[in-house]
TrEMBL record:
Gene it is expressed from: DML1
Species of origin: Heterodermia speciosa
Chief place where the protein resides: mitochondrion
Pfam family, one: Tubulin_3
Protein known as: MtDNA inheritance, partitioning of the mitochondrial organelle
Subcellular location(s) per record: Mitochondrion
GO CC annotations, alphabetized: mitochondrion
DML1/Misato tubulin domain: residues covered: 120-311
Renumbered residue ranges of the record's region Disordered: 350-381
Length: 538
């Protein structure tokens, strides 16, 4: 069945995940007269039995947040009354600690949904206080994992230092453990994994420039130890560059450095993302201060990028998580990828020229003299102009020492493009076997490219903010083009983190962190002289 288990770590990640689950819910069809959904729901949802014996279908996810972070969401996940949660193997049976605090009232949007209203009140930035305020799905009680050691937005004990997150994981991993060995993986993950027929992978959404980075670092390590070669996609969500005092920016940069060092070697692909500090495209109307807004944009691109992993056969080219990751990790140790996107109809409402790459079948680009359909990495800079929004680490996750200046020449090792647009399909790849094609391109030192296309556009549902122009039709959908790539500019980003680590870490951990980041950066210069070491940021 190729199931995917999702792990959500922290308030920022849960905002993004809520948009994701709302989008998955919108793909369901309920009338026998409707066409079957192109999305295979069994990949991300699990069947079960509700309190009255009715069948349920809930996200296959684990949701971690601090005390006060769940808002009005009940421990039961909404399927049960909290006092009626059955005590069986299907529900959390670990050690519990009863704490009573004033109840948070649900938003008017949530209240209307629970009452069965077909048109709930419109959400605004002022009415969305928590991610649960715009959630449209019920969660299984086992999905809810509240961490009571810290409180959300606490000024007394803020959860913002990487080492605090690492310490928290180790402490929770040891609760009830001892000789029994029942740590977090056994207690929280194992039953979800055992429900799967053939799990294709795990996707982890986490903050990485705060304490959740330390928690995610140890969590990813535990997943890799337990699950071996299974695909693990980790999306590291970071604060917008330049926010807060200089001390806060330096702390976030140091957290990002440790997260990169700890997470990227364990993950199949590690994608650090953030809202860019640069001006938005004119069609994008985003409130930078609203987590509801910023997480909506990130979720739209993330959901589009991974769409091939949940398509039904015959609904577009399908690619499992391992398939999507393979073209990116060209040299075997390139596990950090950059994310870009565009919304073509919004950017160019009168244009239908929305190819991500040239349309000729041999994949040549202007100025390329290579043969057999191969093209040079630098030529891809011409096609990168098609993407007008860069959410990658190289543009958004710099430190308080100033912006990152990329070399004019960027070498691309691998790229995966996903287009969801019924009016425009991507050109097919040469008719060779994928393995042979990749080997030829790798030996020639040119980018390995994979392309996926689906006519299923991104749904603009009522829980999604109006950050992109609403379509004139009644379909309420928008096309999205998304791309992941591994390129030499990732080395520039990692080198920046390496210099920060050299300045700010204690002597006892400086050598390992500094040298480890150096080895990670080397992977994006292998076989290609980028001159990254000559670049000075100071």
């Amino acid at each position: 069945m190729h199931e995917i288990l999702t792990i959500q770590l922290g308030h920022r990640a849960n905002h993004l995940a809520t948009h994701f689950w709302n989008t998955q819910e919108s793909y369901f069809t309920y009338s026998p007269h409707d066409d079957p959904s192109p999305v295979d729901h069994d990949i991300h949802f699990r069947p079960g039995i509700g309190p009255s014996g009715e069948e349920t279908y809930t996200p296959r996810t684990l949701i971690y947040d601090l005390k006060g972070g769940f808002g009005s969401l009940r421990r039961s996940g909404g399927l049960y009354e909290d006092g009626d949660v059955p005590n069986d193997d299907e529900v959390w049976n670990g050690r519990t600690l009863l704490q009573t605090s004033p109840a948070i009232q649900p938003s008017s949007y949530t209240t209307a949904l629970n009452a069965g209203a077909s048109t709930p009140p419109q959400l605004t930035t002022s009415t969305v206080r928590f991610w649960s305020d715009f959630s449209r799905v019920f969660y299984h009680p086992r999905s809810i994992v509240q961490i009571n050691d810290y409180e959300l937005a606490s000024s007394i004990l803020p959860f913002e230092n990487w080492d605090s997150g690492e310490e928290l994981f180790r402490r929770l991993d040891g609760q009830g453990g001892g000789d029994s060995g029942e740590g977090i993986i056994d207690r929280d993950v194992r039953r979800w994994a055992e429900e799967c027929d053939h799990m294709q992978g795990v996707q982890v959404w986490t903050g990485t420039d705060d304490a959740w980075g330390g928690f995610a670092g140890r969590y990813t390590e535990a997943l890799r130890d337990e699950m071996g070669k299974i695909g693990i996609w980790t999306w590291g969500i970071m604060e917008e560059q330049g926010r807060g005092s200089r001390a806060k920016q330096l702390l976030r940069a140091m957290n990002a450095a440790k997260s990169t060092y700890e997470i990227s070697p364990q993950a199949s692909i590690y994608i650090p993302v953030a809202i860019p500090a640069t001006p938005f495209p004119p069609y994008l109307h985003l409130d930078r201060q609203s987590e509801w807004h910023t997480s909506a944009l990130l979720s739209m691109v993330l959901e589009s990028m991974t769409l091939p992993s949940r398509l039904r056969p015959g609904q577009g080219r399908r690619g499992l998580l391992d398939d999507l990751a393979m073209p990116l990790n060209v040299n075997g140790n390139q596990r950090i990828a950059a994310l870009q996107c565009s919304i073509p109809k919004a950017a160019e409402p009168d244009s239908h020229d929305v190819n991500l790459l040239p349309a000729d079948n041999d994949q040549r680009v202007p100025g390329s003299n290579t043969s057999e359909g191969l093209h040079g990495g630098n030529d891809l800079q011409q096609t990168n102009a098609r993407f007008d929004l860069d959410l990658s680490c190289g543009e958004t996750a710099s430190s308080a020492f100033g912006p990152i200046h990329h070399k004019a020449s960027e070498h691309v090792f691998g790229r995966v493009d996903c287009s969801r647009d019924p009016d425009q399909s991507l050109p097919e790849i040469n008719g060779e076997d994928d393995g042979i094609s990749r080997k030829r391109r790798r030996l020639a030192g040119v980018p390995i490219i994979e392309r996926y296309h689906s006519s299923l556009q991104y749904p603009l549902i009522d829980s999604f903010p109006s950050i992109v122009p609403q379509p004139p039709s009644s379909s309420k959908t928008t096309p999205v083009h998304a791309s992941l790539s591994t390129s030499s500019r990732i080395s520039t980003y990692v080198r920046r983190l390496q210099r920060i680590a050299g300045r700010m870490t204690s002597p006892d951990e400086r050598e390992a962190l500094f040298n480890g980041l150096g080895e990670i950066g080397d992977a994006y210069e292998e076989g290609w002289n980028s001159g990254a070491d000559d670049d000075s940021d100071d």
